[in-house]
Amino acid sequence: MASSQALRSRYATLLKQFTTSAKEFEVFTTVPADSAPPTGILYVLDSSFNPPTRAHLRIASTALLEQPEPRSRLLLLLATQNADKPSKPASFEDRLAMMELFAHDLRSHLAAGNPSEPASPMEHIPTIDIAVTKKPYFIDKAASIAASHHYPSPLEQVHLTGYDTLIRIFNPKYYPPEHTLQPLSALFSQHRLRVTLRPSDEWGNKEEQEEFLASLARGDLEHQGGRREWAQRIQLVEGRKPADPPVSSTKAREAAESAPQDLQWLVPDTVRQFVLSERPYSTESPGTRV
Ligand SMILES: Nc1ncnc2c1ncn2[C@@H]1O[C@H](COP(=O)(O)OP(=O)(O)OP(=O)(O)O)[C@@H](O)[C@H]1O
Ligand SMILES: NC(=O)c1ccc[n+]([C@@H]2O[C@H](COP(=O)(O)O)[C@@H](O)[C@H]2O)c1
């Protein structure tokens, strides 16, 4: 694999071209490069990847292992514009470099599978694409992926999100000028969501999170334009075990600066090596944007 420096400068060039182009979505890298087009499901993990964490690894690997199908594909999608958060370190080229390392870690993780079973040959492991989008909202991300003609059409997209993101997808404040949930029809008529529970003080416990989907299914959101049948297009899955500490990119950024030993359980191995050697979160790093 290319050195960190080579990865970073390749992505810096690609990003510059993408930013000045009219494109809304572009695939930069396919791992492995010589893959046939997907014919199964297109799983999409949209994230700031700042940095990719073990939670992202679990979200993606459990989805891919649920219905093993080598012709399915995983798209790691970097949102260069976030619905809420301002831009901050690491730079986008550092994040894309970490996404490529993450893709290799994830494929090795999938190949290793269950320790009690023989390892899967790499050619049976789904291909992973690394891409960027300028679109912050899921309805537009899904439409721009389909409109890019990068994939055969029609291809069902399954967007992999956490519970906190599900709640924000269902917040009418994101859909001007009417501020209803009606624009989500385009998403749920063709695509699905696989949502990982994320119990926390802020987002509620497991039962409270499950209740959100139950209330959608009962029609409680119809006064806002949220249709009850969409509940069948949303799958809720368990996240971390209650005894495990919560993992987030915020924690990984903090650990990079003040508790590097914690990176071991927060991020996959190659991402940890990149964070320790390239120091993308250090204020002294030349690549840092403030
Ligand atoms: N520990 C987790 N459990 C469930 N979902 C998660 C978890 N970490 C991330 N996700 C989901 O993965 C997607 C991308 O995550 P994102 O990049 O926002 O990570 P994050 O850890 O929440 O970031 P940050 O800490 O920087 O806010 C989102 O849909 C988010 O809900
Ligand atoms: N209504 C929506 O589609 C909606 C709302 C909030 C965040 N998002 C997106 O979700 C992704 C994850 O967001 P955070 O990094 O803020 O957790 C980002 O791409 C962000 O732009 C989408």
Automatic annotation (TrEMBL):
Single GO MF annotation: ATP binding
Gene Ontology biological process: NAD+ biosynthetic process
Pathway per the UniProt entry: Cofactor biosynthesis; NAD(+) biosynthesis
Keyword field contains DNA-binding: no
Keywords attached to this entry: ATP-binding, NAD, Nucleotide-binding, Nucleotidyltransferase, Pyridine nucleotide biosynthesis, Transferase
Signal peptide range in chain numbering: none
Pfam families to which the protein is assigned, alphabetical: CTP_transf_like (PF01467)
Domain named Cytidyltransferase-like: residues: 46-107
InterPro entries noted in UniProt: Cyt_trans-like, NadD/NMNAT, Rossmann-like_a/b/a_fold
Stretches for region Disordered: 239-262
Full protein name: Cytidyltransferase-like domain-containing protein
High-level lineage: Eukaryota, Fungi, Dikarya, Ascomycota, Pezizomycotina
